[in-house]
Design a protein that fits this description.
Elements: E1 25-32, E2 37-44, E3 48-54, E4 59-62, E5 66-70, E6 72-76, E7 80-85, E8 90-93, E9 97-101, E10 109-115, E11 122-123, E12 127-132, E13 136-139, E14 155-158
Parallel strand pairs: 4-12
Antiparallel strand pairs: 1-2, 3-6, 5-9, 7-8, 7-10, 10-11, 10-12, 13-14
Length: 160
């Protein structure tokens, strides 16, 4: 079992309470007599419930920069991925990584759906792609005042 030698003298070898850590373990059966040695190996495939290991993280990028969102899951059978964009839930990718160029069209919220045959669909946390822009400054274009009045000017700034 994965290069660990386990002696068994019968034709049957039992592994109790199989865990997901044994998925893809190499099982080797070896026999020897006075004429020589023979062995055969097989790989153990352990089915287990999927889980998301890495949720995508929100990104702030300059216009035109490349952005990479990652969603990593484990499960057996192997997971399939679908990336969904915004409220429309438009499908925009089908792998664990979603590569985007930061533009007005890609500035949105994204979720990753993970599918494993025989199990419920998993949905990642939402990640946002936002564009870093120069600050927008707003104030009244004209402020009226009378002679000797106190004047309060209000300036509002929007920026990431």
């Amino acid at each position: 079992l994965n290069d660990d030698v386990m002696k068994e003298t019968s034709e049957i070898f039992t592994i109790e309470n199989v865990s997901k850590e044994l998925d893809k373990a190499v099982l080797t059966c070896e026999a020897e007599n006075s004429v020589g040695r023979s062995k055969v190996s097989q790989i153990l495939s352990v089915n287990f419930v999927p889980q998301i290991l890495t949720h995508p993280r929100s990104e702030i990028a300059r216009y035109g920069e490349k952005v990479k969102l990652t969603c990593l899951a484990e499960g057996n059978p192997a997971p399939s991925y679908v990336w969904m964009k915004g409220k429309s839930q438009e499908i925009v990718g089908v792998s664990e990584n979603l590569l985007l160029t930061a533009t007005d069209d890609t500035e949105d919220d994204y979720t990753c759906k993970v599918f494993v045959a025989g199990h419920e669909t998993l949905i990642s946390e939402t990640a946002s792609v936002r564009i870093l822009r120069k600050p927008a400054v707003f104030t009244e274009s004209v402020k009226h005042a009378k002679l000797d009045d106190d004047v309060i000017l209000q300036c509002r700034v929007e920026s990431l």
